[in-house]
Amino acid sequence: RAKKSLKTNFEYYAPEMEEQTTWRLDMIRQLRNDFGERKLQLWYQPQIDLVTQKIIGMEALLRWPSTDGGFVSPAVFVPLAEYSGLIIDIGAWVMQEACEKLRLLTNEGFTNLRMAVNISMPQFRDPAFIELVKTAITDNALAPECIELEITESIVMDEPQLVIDVLHELKAFGVKVALDDFGTGFSSMSYLQQLPLDRLKVDRAFVNEISPNKSAFIAETIVTLGGKLGLRTIAEGIEKPEQANYLLKLGCDEAQGFMYAKPMPFDALLVFIAQEAKKDA
Ligand code: C2E
Ligand code: MG
Ligand code: MG
Ligand code: MG
């Protein structure tokens, strides 16, 4: 995505684009600096089993604190990190950090949880990628099945054979694979069958369409497709009980959304999981 828009800058020159380029380079410089100073954070959003209502895991999400006390949106800085190549080092840190935190949860007695980690295309092109995933898992004595890689359709379409090969090798090691934001890109059905997938993530945009008087036919189609492909399905962006109920009726397996919990720092996650465990006791 970032690559394409930069190309546009060269093709059609306009002064405001030069400004944009300066802004972009400035952001990249700041990001590199802040990452070097260990200022990036990893937050976690719980994932819930729709049937049992129990926490089954979490998705790790990058947070970049900004000078005004808020955060720069990952939707803004992740593409810059991808374009600049910084995502290779940042992504390696994310993988290690996520594995370390899952180890801490296991030590606290919370076993059988899954940690989902988002992966970008440049990471697939990194020859060290497969090894660093394996090392992060074994260094923390985790079962590989507890780590799930989230990839998007655009990654697959970018360089299908490379992505398929890398995923098959990691899959043989034991890690799980989820197709994120499903339905928002253009994945070919034939790739869907060649990828070693475990889960389809129904994008928030389609969950959003679910309301009391409306049928949400795309969400329904994705859940049905997942079932036919033998995959589990998880819906993201659930904000209302009626959305959860509808998805449960469709046969969707899992849920993630503000209705259950927003992304939170690790300490808060630990409290959240401990409280949920008490409810069950
Ligand atoms: P994503 O992987 O699809 O992550 C889900 C996004 O939906 C997160 O946004 C999450 O905060 C948001 N979300 C979850 N439930 C709800 C809800 O009920 N309502 C609303 N409005 N939003 C909800 P976030 O954290 O801003 O991340 C945006 C994107 O940035 C991610 O989308 C992912 O593509 C990328 N990203 C984040 N962390 C990483 C990372 O470590 N590596 C890579 N490569 N990409 C990352
Ligand atoms: Mg994701
Ligand atoms: Mg998503
Ligand atoms: Mg999304």
TrEMBL record:
Coiled coil: none annotated. It comes from the Bacteria. Residues 24-277 form the EAL domain. This is Signaling protein ykoW. It comes from Paraglaciecola polaris LMG 21857.
